[in-house]
C-alpha cells in the first residue's frame, strides 16, 4: 500500500489548486443558511446599515499633501487604510515582467497599479490619522504579508491605537490556478494578507452595545485572489466592520473606484471623481447620537452576547477595564460538602463561579468576590 500523504498538499503540487479552495461556507451570502438565527441577524443588520447609510462620497486627492483634519477634527468612528506599499508594487512589477519578484534595473518608475508612488512606513507615520479619529474609534490597516505585521503594530501605536485583532485574508485561486507570490528570502508561497485592527479609547463589549456588537463575524476572510497585479481587497471587510461598529462616520483612505460604497467617504489618488461636500456630509450628523446606527430590539435579541464572567474578570475584554459594582458572597459552613449546583441555587447565583480564599475557624469558610457589569 502506498504511503498516505496530505491529499491537498499533493493536489496543490500537481495542479496549483490551493487547499483553501475547498473550505466550505466561504461565501458570506450563504454562510449562515443552515443557522437560521445567525442568518436572520446578518439579514437584519445589513438592512439597517443600508437604511441608515449616508450617500457615498469620494475625494480624489494626494494624501501626502491633503490636510486630513479638514475632513473633520477627531470625527470618524472607523478608518480603513489600504496603503500602496512597496510590497504591492514589487508584486505587480513581477507579474508585468513575467518573473519572480526581484530587483530589475529596467523596471518602470516606482508606482502602484493605481498610479500612486508607493508609501514607506516612514511616510505612513506622517499621515495625520489622530487628527481625524474620534475616541473611541477603530482603524483597519492592511499590512500585506511580510514585514507589515511588525511595522503595522508600531504604526498603530504611533497613531494612538492599540492592536486588538488581526484579520487574515486567505486567498483562494479556484478560477485562475496561478501560483502565489514568493518574495526574496521567503521559504513558503504567500497565499494570505493581514489587516490589523486597532482601537483608540475605550469600548466595552458588555456596556457599549450602542457602539459595538461583538462576535458576529470571524477574523478570517476566505476569498478569491484578484487579477495579477491587483491590490484590491475583499469587500467582506466592509461587512465585518458594519456588523461590528455602529458608528456611521466611516472613512476609507487610499481608495479606488471599486471601494466607493454608501455610508463611506473614500479618499485617494486612485479615484476618478470627487463628490465630497464637507458641509453636506457634516449636516448628516447634527442631532444627538446621530452618528450611531441605532438600536434594534430584534437585532439585540439575536446577536451573540459576550460572557459576563469573562468581561468582568478580563477588564471588559480588550476594550478596557470593567466598571461594575462589587458583590461579596459568603458561604456558611453548612454548605461545606453540598453539591455545587445545590448551593449555587440556594444563593440564587446560578452562573457565578466561586473560588476559595482562605479557611479559618469562624462560622464562614469560603469567600467569593464577583464583579458585575
UniProtKB/TrEMBL annotation:
Enzyme class: transferase
Signal peptide: none
Keywords from the UniProt entry: Methyltransferase, Nucleus, Transferase
Main location: nucleus
GO BP: methylation
An example Gene Ontology CC term for this record: RNA N6-methyladenosine methyltransferase complex
Molecular function GO labels: mRNA (2'-O-methyladenosine-N6-)-methyltransferase activity; mRNA binding
Skewed-composition ranges (Polar residues): 12-23
Tagged with keyword Methyltransferase: yes
SUPFAM superfamilies: S-adenosyl-L-methionine-dependent methyltransferases
Coiled-coil ranges (or none): none
Pfam families assigned: MT-A70 (PF05063)
Biased composition (Gly residues): 312-323
This enzyme's EC code(s): 2.1.1.62
Cellular compartment(s): Nucleus
Region (Disordered): 1-25, 301-323
Family stated for the protein in its record: Belongs to the MT-A70-like family.
Protein name according to UniProt: N6-adenosine-methyltransferase subunit mettl14
Organism, scientific name: Tieghemiomyces parasiticus
Amino acid at each position: 500500500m502506498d504511503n498516505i500523504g496530505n491529499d491537498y498538499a499533493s493536489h496543490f503540487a500537481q495542479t496549483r489548486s490551493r487547499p483553501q479552495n475547498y473550505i466550505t461556507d466561504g461565501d458570506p451570502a450563504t454562510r449562515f443558511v443552515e443557522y437560521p438565527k445567525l442568518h436572520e441577524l446578518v439579514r437584519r443588520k445589513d438592512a439597517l446599515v443600508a437604511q441608515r447609510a449616508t450617500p457615498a462620497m469620494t475625494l480624489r486627492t494626494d494624501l501626502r499633501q491633503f490636510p486630513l483634519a479638514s475632513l473633520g477634527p477627531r470625527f470618524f468612528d472607523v478608518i480603513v487604510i489600504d496603503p500602496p506599499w512597496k510590497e504591492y508594487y514589487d508584486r505587480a512589477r513581477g507579474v508585468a515582467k513575467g518573473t519572480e519578484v526581484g530587483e530589475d534595473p529596467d523596471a518602470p518608475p516606482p508606482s502602484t497599479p493605481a498610479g500612486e508612488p508607493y508609501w514607506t512606513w516612514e511616510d505612513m507615520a506622517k499621515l495625520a490619522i489622530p487628527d481625524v479619529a474620534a475616541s473611541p474609534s477603530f482603524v483597519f490597516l492592511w499590512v500585506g504579508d511580510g514585514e507589515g505585521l511588525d511595522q503595522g503594530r508600531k504604526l498603530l501605536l504611533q497613531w494612538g491605537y492599540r492592536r486588538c485583532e488581526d484579520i487574515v485574508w486567505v486567498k483562494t485561486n479556484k478560477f485562475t490556478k496561478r501560483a502565489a507570490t514568493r518574495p526574496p528570502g521567503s521559504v513558503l508561497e504567500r497565499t494570505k494578507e493581514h489587516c490589523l485592527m486597532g482601537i483608540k479609547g475605550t469600548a466595552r463589549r458588555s456596556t457599549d452595545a450602542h457602539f459595538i456588537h461583538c462576535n458576529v463575524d470571524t477574523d478570517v476572510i476566505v476569498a478569491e485572489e484578484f487579477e495579477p497585479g491587483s491590490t484590491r481587497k475583499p469587500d467582506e471587510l466592509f461587512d465585518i466592520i458594519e456588523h461590528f461598529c455602529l458608528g456611521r462616520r466611516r472613512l476609507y483612505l487610499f481608495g479606488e473606484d471599486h471601494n466607493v460604497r454608501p455610508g463611506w467617504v473614500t479618499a485617494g489618488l486612485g479615484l476618478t471623481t470627487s463628490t465630497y461636500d464637507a458641509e453636506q456630509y457634516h449636516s448628516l450628523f447634527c442631532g444627538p447620537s446621530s452618528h450611531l446606527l441605532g438600536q434594534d430590539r430584534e437585532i439585540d435579541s439575536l446577536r451573540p452576547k459576550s460572557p459576563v464572567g469573562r468581561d468582568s474578570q478580563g477588564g471588559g475584554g480588550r476594550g478596557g477595564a470593567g466598571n461594575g459594582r462589587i458583590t461579596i458572597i459568603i458561604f456558611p459552613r453548612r454548605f461545606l460538602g453540598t453539591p455545587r449546583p445545590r448551593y449555587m441555587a440556594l444563593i440564587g447565583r446560578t452562573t457565578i463561579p466561586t473560588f476559595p480564599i482562605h479557611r479559618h475557624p469562624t462560622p464562614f469558610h469560603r469567600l467569593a468576590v464577583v464583579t458585575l457589569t
